[in-house]
Design brief:
about 140 residues, alpha+beta, Ubiquitin-like (UB roll), two-stranded antiparallel ribbon, 8 strands
């Protein structure tokens, strides 16, 4: 994994200052495989999740459903190592270039973006690579 923690607290603070969190204290974060450009998923980060991601090099999100930090792969083992964290032009969206271990989607697919319009119907265009029950013990 190509985890790249940012050791300098001042550098982490400058990046955090560039982010415009919404009224709930959240910012959308797109995860993209660093070497292929494959878009893996969209999740949310709060300030604490960004700080942890930068300081550890392991991507951490904020789970809106659980109301707390979600360390990608803590249950499934499908970890995202941070390669680079980018802020968009308005400061209101993040792009996490990651090194994804295994699949990114809870459905067992590599990417969460697996549905598309085909012949007038929205259908899955990729099959699961892993049984979700094997990832989450369900």
């Amino acid at each position: 994994m190509l985890s790249q923690p940012i050791a300098d607290p001042a550098a982490r603070a400058r990046l955090l200052d560039a982010i415009r969190f919404d009224a709930r204290g959240l910012v959308p974060a797109i995860a993209q495989q660093h070497d292929t450009g494959e878009v893996l998923m969209l999740a949310w980060m709060n300030r604490e999740a960004v700080e942890e991601t930068l300081s550890t090099g392991r991507v951490c999100y904020f789970s809106r459903s659980r109301g707390g930090l979600w360390r990608k792969g803590e249950t499934s083992g499908q970890v995202q190592g941070l390669v680079e964290l980018r802020v968009d032009c308005d400061g209101d969206t993040l792009l996490a270039l990651v090194d994804q271990t295994g699949v990114a989607c809870h459905t067992g697919r590599r990417s969460c973006f697996f549905s598309a319009l085909r012949d007038g119907e929205v259908v899955p265009i990729t099959a699961p690579e892993v049984d979700p029950a094997a990832l989450y013990g369900g």
